[in-house]
């Protein structure tokens, strides 16, 4: 099949409402891939897929979207190489514009939805954790120097501000919401893992 650029923009003939409706339908189908992915123990990051794992993904897509034909050019391509392709590259390899658009969108969606820690190796996660713990440990000396209570629930609004200043300096935050400054004593309650806390 010859590649003709004018065929690539088929979404241009749809109204914005139709594009949104189509996008929602496709995202709903994409969400179903997560269960299949877990069942086959495929890495969450498609860039880590082997050529055979890419083939399993293509089989799933072909079954879900009823592609009439799918070029064999995509099979056996390692995940990293596939994800490094631009949209047009996927469309050319798929040899079917509709199928190529869906494959491209699914790859893009999976990469965007990755958590930061998902793209790190276990060794990198451990190294990052150790670095953060080292920085946290340094706060104890700062805390004693300023005579801040050990229990953050006892901090006044100004003491919360001192803690924020220290964190901003140590972690080089580009911006920090002013909403946190001046929070009254006892308002910040440490939460469970995954929940940074709540303000009463």
How is this structure best described in words?
This protein has 200 residues and is mostly helical. The protein folds into two domains: 5-115, Transcription Factor, Ets-1 (DNA polymerase, domain 1); 120-190, Orthogonal Bundle (DNA polymerase, domain 1). The protein contains eight helices and two strands. It has helices at 16-31, 33-39, 51-65, 79-83, 87-94, 97-112, 122-145, 157-171; strands spanning 188-189, 198-199. The longest helix has 24 residues, at 122-145. The relative contact order is 0.08. Residues 1-8 and 191-200 have low confidence and may be disordered.
Entry keywords:
PNT domain-containing protein; two-stranded antiparallel ribbon; about 55% helix; disordered C terminus; Pointed_dom; SAM/pointed_sf; disordered N terminus; DNA polymerase, domain 1; about 200 residues; single chain; 8 helices; 2 strands; mainly alpha
């Amino acid at each position: 099949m010859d590649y003709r650029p004018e065929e690539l923009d088929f979404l241009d003939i749809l109204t914005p409402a139709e594009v949104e409706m189509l996008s929602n339908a496709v995202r709903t189908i994409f969400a179903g891939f997560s269960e299949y992915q877990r069942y086959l123990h495929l890495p969450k990051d498609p860039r880590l897929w082997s050529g055979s794992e890419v083939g399993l993904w293509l089989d799933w897509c072909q079954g879900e979207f009823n592609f009439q034909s799918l070029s064999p050019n995509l099979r056996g391509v390692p995940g990293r190489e596939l994800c490094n392709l631009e949209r047009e590259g996927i469309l050319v390899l798929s040899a079917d514009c509709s199928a190529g658009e869906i494959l491209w969108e699914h790859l893009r969606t999976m990469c965007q939805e990755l958590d930061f820690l998902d793209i790190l190796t276990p060794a990198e996660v451990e190294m990052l954790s150790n670095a953060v713990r080292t920085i946290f440990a340094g706060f104890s000396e700062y805390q004693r120097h300023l005579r801040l209570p050990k229990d953050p629930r006892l901090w006044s609004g100004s003491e919360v501000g001192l803690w924020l200043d220290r964190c901003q300096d140590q972690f080089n935050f580009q911006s920090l919401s002013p909403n946190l400054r001046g929070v009254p004593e006892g308002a910040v309650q440490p939460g469970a893992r995954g929940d940074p806390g709540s303000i009463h």
